[in-house]
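[job 4471] stage=fold_predict status=RUNNING
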Amino acid sequence: MKKSKTKDLIEVLRTVMKAHTKHYQSDFDSDVEILTKAAQEAGRTKPEDRTFLWMARTSGTWCLLEKNVYMKDSRENHTWNFYTTMPKGEILAYRVEVTGMKDDSITGTILELNYQKHSRYIQDVAVPSSQTRYIFENGERIQPNGKNINTLNIPIGDDPVLGELKTFHPVPDDPNRLAELLRKAGNDKNWNRRKDS
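[job 4471] inference complete, writing structure tokens
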């Protein structure tokens, strides 16, 4: 599959999942939530906040924010690269760009990836991240990795001053390098086919 626009990303990915994923198909429910939220916020977010790497395994799926996969040692980077020892054909991988919603369907583009080649590429080029951004209901804080404690020396969670922890993301040590990698990601011909070489 070449990069193609689709009027219903969820239906395309669901078809792949139904055909390939034999166990833990319920993982896809989380993927639908992630992609739906990205589509609903499309007018207020940057493309990099709406671009995902999605994989269907024989036992489950993953939908990971692409920019976080490109940051070394992030949760998403470890998850994406974890399956490199799986037998050929076990992983179907795609780059998914969400552009918005039309008639209750999520629109965007899908690019099929050669998972093994793409994972090796990520391992070679991933940008270091030595800090994490914690976003709370009433503000945010950036802290060094491994220092995930709040002002009261309690593991990160809800904060008495900043409120409920909403989400957290790795922070790239070199944001310009990450931006360059993300710009190239959708056009790189080296790993946009599943065929092994």
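[job 4471] summary: Helices lie at 9-20, 27-40, 66-69, 75-81, 115-125, 175-185.
[job 4471] exit 0
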